[in-house]
Fold:
Amino acid sequence: MKNRLITMLIALLVSIGSAQAQESFAKYEFNPEKTYIIELQDGEQFVGHFLESNEQYIIIQTNSLPRIEIPIQKIISIEIVNPKNIKNGVYWFKNPNTTRYLFAPSAFTLKKGEGYYQNTYLALNSFNIGVTDHISIGGGVELFSTFGSLAAGKFQPVFFITPKIGYQVADKVNVGAGILYLSIPNDFGDSGRIGAGIVYGVGTYGTEEHNVSLGLGWGVADGEMTSKPVIVLSGMTRIGQKTALVSENWFIPTDPYYGVYSYGIRFFGEKLTVDLAFLNNADLAGALIIGIPYVDFVVKF
Structure:
């Protein structure tokens, strides 16, 4: 009897919440001159201009449909679309992957509660989440070492941790700093581990659609820091609703600096990006002119 009462109470609260949300959306004040994005409970989204509404439906016009009726009871959000996201009458969803190029970071940060999962070459797996609008924390593991150590009867994966902080300091100017800490099993089997890291700063100029970044990173191992920084020059430009060009270039402090370059294309979804790129330099080009293929994907949540 007690469980039944609890179930009935939960159902009543849910129905009241649903009714309140439905009433709220039914009274939503639209501006016919603005563009709206309406999201439904199943994740489907409609973008268009308001035509009319009644107690059951909100009616809008989209680019492909002159009139579509959206059930109010299935709506979970209504938002005004930023005019900058309308290109030639087509809605461009927000760039879901602004904080990273291929591997190197930009100075853009995740918002509080935002996060993403990144997979590189199917082997390198990482997660990052926004703790605040300016601070994020992330980390990951490399699967080959994980499975290899498990096969030897141990669990000694290669893993890394990546805290980061970033701020916008001027129009189109963001700065950030962070640490990449890497932990490696000593000889992949002994009880000890080897720790090393990079302390870096990065500056990004531009918008989330078109930007360039310059990063400087100093290696740290055994309590000592390298005298010369790794230099990373990266950039991306969005060339279509679902495509962008991306490049990430590393200059490693040997004598002289040793460069590794990349160029590729990024494919967008609203919550997913896929990078298809090539890594190259003078040595690699001698064996393969176009360079070594690079593949990753990122899922935003």
About this structure: Confidence is low (pLDDT under 50) at residues 12-19. The chain is about 15% helix and 50% strand.
